[in-house]
Write a structure and sequence with these properties.
Length: 152
């Protein structure tokens, strides 16, 4: 077993994956603020995140190390497609399998909810974008453009 594999196994042995609940929001916000490539907006205020988690109670997860949030995936669906937001891991723990584990949990939860396709929104200038998303079964879509608007 290589040193990197041993390090990853050691880190994962100390990580607990749990459903993301409102009690994790404050720590999650701190992690997101410290994570390059994660964009935050008014939608990420505590009350909005709590409402998102209430609407999607089984599809978002946190990685905990001694009760501290060290990773998150905010995931939900509209009954037809899943959507991943804010997949983030503490900078000191990246490349240890935590992000992949969180994403696998979210995708499996979507599958159990009858959702068979998922999209992820990733900023073009996210420094980890290609390194993480190109290694899995994700397809980079050149045929789509995302437009956003505030509701009125």
């Amino acid at each position: 077993m290589s040193s990197t594999t041993q390090d990853s196994a050691s880190v994962m042995a100390r990580i607990q994956v749990s459903l993301f609940d409102p009690g994790h929001i404050e720590q999650a916000q701190q992690l997101w603020q410290a994570s390059p490539g994660v964009g935050l907006s008014d939608s990420d205020h505590e009350e909005n995140l709590a409402r998102f988690l209430q609407r999607n109670p089984s599809t978002s997860f946190v990685a905990l190390q001694q009760d501290s949030v060290v990773g998150t995936v905010l995931c939900g669906h509209d009954g037809r497609r899943g959507y991943v937001h804010h997949l983030a891991v503490a900078q000191t723990l990246r490349r240890q399998g935590i992000g992949t584990t969180l994403l696998d949990c979210a995708l499996h939860a979507l599958y159990l909810d009858g959702i068979h396709k998922c999209h992820c929104f990733v900023f073009r200038d996210n420094p980890a974008r290609d390194l993480f998303w190109n290694k899995g079964h994700w397809t980079y879509r050149k045929d789509l453009v995302v437009y956003s608007s505030h509701t009125r």
